[in-house]
């Protein structure tokens, strides 16, 4: 997973971070796509530092860029093509115990302390989310039932979501390999209608929902749930929509418990 670069205290505005380009500015991860006028970072971290140029941000322009000349920020149309930088969060892929110690004893035989091995949280190419101690991976091109069956084969289920932070995490992961902005190319998650209720396929509690405006609709016809991961879809970004389960979706996200 990655996020367009940000910092709670400062943005390192450096030309050397970019490949040679004729651009005068580059994208950073601040936007007000969810609530107009309320700027936030794409990774959900606290929005504590700003560096807007005079007269910025302009109303109606929802994504932030940073000028190469002075590092000041400007609001721009999110569909513009610009250079960008991104930051990779620390990946706690392994949990290592402290160095082993041996209790002092008197003996003529050698005393050997055998350290425990470091244990990975997730299988290779899966991404760890510490809040639910779970591993996630994005796959592509399946109907909902086929996607769920595939996730079960991987040892998990289509992703359940239990907080705003986890929802943002799944949305960011779902943008993997998305070559162009297309609001219609959404992502299956593991919520499905069961009578008058919506239930997760992993049988966890439905304790968080994030429906798009006027959703869900078409009861009995659209029983599976998709996540809008595309930042260009201003009204539905990170929101959920119910859809016909036989729709072949661009992506789907599997979730399983960590292996550590």
Automatic annotation (TrEMBL):
User: What sequence ranges are listed for the domain C-type lectin?
Assistant: 18-78, 131-246
Tell me the SMART domains matching this sequence: CLECT (SM00034)
**PROSITE patterns in UniProt:** C_TYPE_LECTIN_2 (PS50041)
One Pfam family this sequence matches: Lectin_C
Q: Which Gene3D superfamilies match?
A: Mannose-Binding Protein A, subunit A
Per its UniProt record, what InterPro entries does this chain match? C-type_lectin-like (IPR001304), C-type_lectin-like/link_sf (IPR016186), C-type_lectin/snaclec_domain (IPR050111), CTDL_fold (IPR016187)
Q: What is this protein called?
A: C-type lectin domain-containing protein
Source species of the chain: Trichostrongylus colubriformis
Q: What is the lineage of its organism?
A: Eukaryota, Metazoa, Ecdysozoa, Nematoda, Chromadorea
């Amino acid at each position: 997973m990655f996020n367009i670069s940000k910092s709670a205290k400062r943005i390192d505005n450096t030309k050397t971070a970019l490949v040679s380009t004729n651009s005068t500015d580059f994208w950073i991860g601040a936007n007000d796509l969810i609530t107009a006028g309320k700027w936030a970072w794409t990774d959900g971290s606290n929005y504590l530092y700003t560096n807007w140029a005079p007269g910025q941000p302009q109303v109606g322009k929802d994504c932030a860029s940073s000028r190469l000349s002075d590092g000041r920020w400007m609001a721009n149309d999110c569909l513009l093509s610009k250079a960008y930088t991104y930051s990779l969060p620390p990946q706690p892929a392994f949990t290592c115990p402290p160095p082993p110690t041996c209790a002092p004893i008197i003996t003529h035989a050698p005393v050997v302390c055998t350290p425990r091995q470091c244990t990975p949280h997730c299988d290779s190419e899966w991404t760890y989310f510490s809040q639910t101690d779970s591993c996630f991976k994005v796959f592509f091109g399946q109907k909902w039932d086929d996607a769920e069956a595939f996730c079960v084969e991987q040892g998990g289920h289509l992703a359940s979501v239990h907080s705003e932070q986890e929802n943002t995490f799944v949305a960011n992961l779902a943008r993997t390999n998305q070559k162009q902005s297309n609001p219609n190319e959404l992502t299956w998650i593991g919520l499905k209608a069961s009578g008058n209720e919506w239930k997760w396929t992993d049988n966890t509690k439905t304790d968080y929902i994030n429906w798009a405006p006027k959703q869900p609709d078409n009861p009995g016809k659209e029983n599976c749930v998709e996540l809008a991961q595309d930042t260009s879809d201003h009204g539905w970004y990170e929101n959920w929509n119910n859809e016909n389960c036989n729709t072949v979706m661009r992506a789907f996200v599997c979730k399983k418990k960590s292996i550590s």
